[in-house]
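From the methods appendix. Each design record in this collection lists the tokenized structure first, followed by the designed amino acid sequence. Records were kept in a plain field format so they could be parsed without special tools. The example shown here is representative of the layout used throughout.

RECORD:
FOLD TOKENS (521 positions):
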């Protein structure tokens, strides 16, 4: 099959997504990441539309790109002036990029209603705008805005718009499903009809309003499009743009089209996706195809049993091909296979026929019913398994704790004090400490003892603390689940505690966190 150029518009159409606002520094970082990854074109924004975009293009003049070409975006000229006098077309030329991508109207409704000019005048606007940019020495792509909607209402006119851009010298005619309402079969049928009437390469720019932007982009390629526009993680206006993070591996691994991206570059796909999400300050979608944390996570015992024999049974590709990894979780959906998988991961040698493992499967299901989830608390599960297999002894034993909260007036602060009694190596310690809250006070009192025996405990910091009320209909006597994420600066781990008492649930998760650190050294 033909080759495909990847055109990224995260910095332009992606930035049109609600909740996304890149600084100039963010833009430069993303442009560098995209270039390293290997996309062919990076659309940086609309020169003249915002000072941030102008600063970005100015800064990018000093950045040497390895793989990509910078593209400036804009519209066809205003009806009230010539292309030579159009402020925004001139801004594109002044931005210093080698490539321009301008959008023009191809739906007669828009010509009548939005531009309020004649159909003929719009054709002239398209041709003269493209021709001006070409005369100015730029490579020009023409984004045929609303092409599919326009074609369905007035096919002759929509095609004439493409022909006007072709006469002007456009190098790619990009068919836009601007409102994202077109179905895949319509994309294929329309491309098949128009392609023989054009000399110019076709591209696709799809929006995701029907959750079809990726499918529509792929079907366009099947029908001859050689240029695909989209954004990282599908960011973009309304429901977003076509997600390049799904399109690129589908083109490479399913269609066999390399899109100028080598296998080694594809293996950095997950990193790219996560890194851009971080810069955009968006939570990464765990269920995102190919690169999400759950994309290769297996929960059901039947699945785990099969992937341990051959991963192909429940994985459509090897996760490493896109820089992701296989994961197995433990829950009430688990069988022996989940536990054997985890044992191997924890470095525990255990016979598959060991009856204690069968008991542990049952125990895990009972704990799940009580509210324990181990998906985000693998450290707690490792301790549970080691305890069951008699591979682990507690480093310290709780003899008792007491927490006192005291408030002596409406406007007075609460004073919190905890006392803890623990035995360590045949010594019994009784300590007290204050804290910001009951958990902090307990932690402080416990650390007073543990720091003496286990200095490594001082490196533990709590990086996340989540509380979930499990059966809220019981009001204040509901069970609560506490999930703690801890880190020692090098590694992080998750633990869980469940109890009707929030302090006790937290204590359990906290103790597991400390025991896990002591186990791992
Ligand atoms: C499908 C897409 O995603 S297209 C890209 C959309 N992105 C953006 O709009 C983000 C950046 N835009 C902006 O910052 C501003 O809209 C600007 C600076 C470009 C223009 O601002 P203003 O001059 O104040 O115009 P405003 O935004 O109100 O309206 C857009 C104008 O462009 C005209 N226009 C729209 N599309 C085109 C086109 N393809 N060719 C020529 N003119 C066009 C409209 O008719 C309207 O003109 P009017 O004011 O004479 O009615
Ligand atoms: C040009 C563009 O962004 C669109 O038609 O969606």
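DESIGN:
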């Amino acid at each position: 099959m033909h080759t495909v150029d990847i055109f990224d518009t995260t910095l332009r159409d992606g930035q049109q997504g609600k909740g996304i606002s890149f600084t100039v520094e963010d833009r430069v970082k993303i442009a560098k990441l995209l270039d390293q990854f290997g996309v062919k074109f990076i659309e940086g924004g609309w020169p003249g539309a915002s000072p941030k975009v102008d600063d970005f293009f100015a800064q990018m003049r000093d950045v040497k790109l390895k793989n990509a070409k910078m593209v400036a975006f804009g519209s066809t000229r205003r009806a009230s002036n010539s292309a030579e006098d159009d402020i925004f077309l001139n801004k594109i030329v002044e931005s210093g990029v080698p490539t321009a991508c301008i959008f023009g109207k191809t739906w007669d409704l828009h010509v009548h209603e939005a531009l309020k000019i004649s159909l003929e005048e719009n054709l002239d606007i398209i041709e003269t705008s493209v021709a001006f940019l070409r005369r100015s020495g730029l490579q020009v792509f023409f984004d045929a805005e609303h092409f599919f909607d326009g074609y369905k209402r007035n096919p002759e006119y929509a095609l004439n718009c493409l022909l006007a851009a072709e006469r002007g010298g456009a190098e790619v005619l990009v068919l836009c499903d601007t409102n994202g309402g077109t179905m895949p079969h319509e994309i294929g049928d329309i491309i098949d009809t128009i392609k023989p009437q054009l000399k110019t390469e076709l591209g696709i720019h799809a929006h995701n309003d029907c959750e079809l932007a990726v499918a529509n982009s792929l079907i366009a390629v099947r029908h001859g499009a050689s240029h695909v526009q989209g954004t990282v993680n599908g960011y973009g206006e309304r429901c977003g743009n076509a997600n390049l993070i799904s399109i690129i591996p589908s083109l490479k691994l399913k269609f066999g089209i390399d899109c100028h991206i080598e296998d080694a570059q594809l293996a950095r796909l997950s990193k790219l996706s996560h890194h851009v999400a971080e810069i955009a300050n968006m939570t990464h979608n765990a269920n995102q195809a190919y690169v999400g944390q759950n994309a290769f996570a297996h929960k059901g015992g039947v699945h785990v049993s099969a992937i341990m024999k051959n991963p192909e049974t429940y994985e459509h590709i090897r996760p490493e091909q896109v820089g992701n990894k296989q994961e197995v979780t433990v829950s009430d959906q688990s069988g022996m296979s989940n536990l054997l998988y985890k044992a191997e991961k924890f470095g525990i040698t255990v016979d598959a026929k060991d009856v204690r493992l069968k008991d542990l499967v049952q125990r895990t299901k009972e704990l799940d019913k009580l509210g324990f989830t181990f998906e985000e608390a693998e450290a707690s599960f490792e301790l549970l398994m080691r305890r069951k297999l008699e591979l682990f002894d507690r480093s310290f034993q709780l003899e008792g704790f007491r927490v006192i909260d005291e408030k002596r007036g409406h406007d007075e602060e609460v004073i919190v004090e905890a006392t803890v009694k623990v035995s360590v190596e045949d010594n019994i310690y009784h300590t007290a400490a204050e804290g910001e809250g009951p958990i902090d006070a307990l932690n402080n009192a416990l650390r007073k003892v543990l720091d003496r025996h286990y200095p490594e405990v001082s490196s533990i910091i709590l990086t996340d603390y989540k509380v979930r009320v499990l059966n809220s209909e019981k009001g204040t006597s509901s069970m609560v689940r506490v999930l703690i994420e801890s880190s020692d600066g090098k590694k992080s781990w998750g633990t869980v505690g469940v109890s009707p008492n929030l302090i006790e649930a937290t204590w359990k998760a906290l103790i597991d966190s400390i025991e896990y650190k002591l186990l791992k050294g």
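APPENDIX NOTE: The two ends are 54 Å apart (CA to CA).
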